[in-house]
Amino acid sequence: MPAALAPLPAGFYSARQLATVVGFNQLFCSAIGIAIWLAGSPGLVANIVVSMLIGNSVWLLVDGGRWLVGRTLQRWTGQGLPWPGYRWMLPVIVLGVLGGYEIGRRLAGLLLGVQLAPMFSRGSTLIVTTVAGIAATLFWHATAMLQKHRAEAEAAQRQAAETQLRLLQSQLEPHMLFNTLANLRVLITLDPPRAQQMLDRLIGFLRSTLGASRVALHPLQAEFDRTADYLALMAVRMGPRLATELDLPPELAALPVPPLLLQPLVENAIQHGLEPQVAGGRIVVHARQEGDALVLTVRDTGRGLPAAPAPAPPGRGFGTQQIRERLATLHGDAARLELAAAGDAEGGTVATLRLPMPAAPLAEDRAGADLAIHRTAATAPAASSATHSAPP
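Predicted structure:
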């Protein structure tokens, strides 16, 4: 799932919010200046400029006070407080309106030579400044609350997406394990020695896979390693009927990807493509970069896709469905999984994963990216022996 920005510290505006607040201030001050001019005060431009001087001074004092109070309360409570509440803000507003008018009045005298009366000398000046200050403060309050609620909504959305990803990923692990145990059960009856070998491979595969599958991201190198482990496990069952090729360019090996993307596709290729054929076939797993996309393909030379797909029986298509849901949760429409016929003399099916190109490799795994995985073999045991770390 693309990374979201952390909530801003209490009182801070984003660049867009700051532009909105400043723009609102100028429009609001201009409207007040025009209203005063229409009420009979001479000089349209002078009234607008004076209104801006007073209005921006009030805003700086009130919003600066809000930020100062919010940051102080944040240090005391450890919680961001973009709007500290009217109990704290009422004195800030009163002092900000009084001080802002006085600062603006003096600036008008220095810059324009306009001598304004002190605030309390005229009732109309007091009313206009107070109403304007309260109206502007209400706008700043609404902006601060919108900032807070947006940050809370983004945090809730991130948490929901992470929970959904953990759920989808946790469903893949027992699904793969049950399928493997079902294969092992058949082999126990037909060939007990090979069943013992497959059980040893299964123990090693689970030892290396289940721990790694608990992370949100791991290097593409690790994803290929786990796929090689799984193919070694399946080779015990299929023997010389299974040939494999894994091709990972070294410049892509350290890129972070979600775990358990390739294994369900390889599992489908074996179960629905190669095993139904007496002669078995070949599986090729390949990674490449296309523009700003990372493309992972799993191609088999099995029996291919049916001409008119029937509704899938219960349990069929589970792996591809989970991959699609994980990609949608992480990347939305920017990632997809496509299944298509191979379209050449060998036949079979090609599963293609397209993901946004990760921004940077995982630094701690960069050393493992110096060598590419490129294994080709006539049978799976030879293909996987170079990478399987568990004892045979």
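Summary: The chain has two domains: 15-157, 191-384.
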